[in-house]
Amino acid sequence: MKTIKVCYFAMFREHAGVAEETLTLEAATAHDVFEQTRLRHGSDEPNGHCKVAINDHMADWDTPVNDGDTVLLFPPVAGG
Amino acid sequence: MIEISDSPIDTAELQRSLINPAAGGYCAFEGWVRNENEGHVVERLEYEAYKPLAITEGEKVLAEARAKFPYLDARCVHRAGLLEIGECAVWIGVASAHRDEAFKACRYIIDEIKVRLPIWKKEHYANGDSGWVNCERCAQHGIAD
User: Fold this and answer.
1) How many CB atoms lie within 10 A of CB A32?
2) Domain residues for B55?
3) What ipTM is given for this predicted complex?
């Protein structure tokens, strides 16, 4: 099990009802973290339109996560 | 240089900051808050940005633009917070020796910023509803980046 801090933004924050939470998870990759938070909060957003960062660095969905990491989940962006 | 600003963008001051004796061309793009989107009457927009990564990713975009279209100087400011109709939401300015680089770099920067920076836009509609706007290009292509 790993202790992961998860940060939610925009629509993800509204779905989760919190901006961040610390979870204890069985997760090998960023995608595993995303899937477990999706189940936890009942989101149906597929990860294909979303982005992820780990410890303030942009990451891929198959990037490994480690105990103590902060995973930032970004819903589809819309700047400009 | 890129900045995420919680206060209105002073476009005249930004333009002055790019004045350069070696520049023969200057191109700027301003993105404004529009009163309509996909049939909905929009009353105001709310931008949320994750500043640490918006700055890092924005600086990468500027560096890529400079490598592709060598310019003398460029600046970008994106707003965060609540914006009214007609307000400037994003400003990009590029100064270069010749106009071609300024036009092309400006276009590259705005196109990349819209799809790469962790910035989200919530529309507040006249009927009282609101909704987060999804990335158009990502949605069309069904891809992550």
Assistant:
1) 19
2) 2-141
3) 0.91
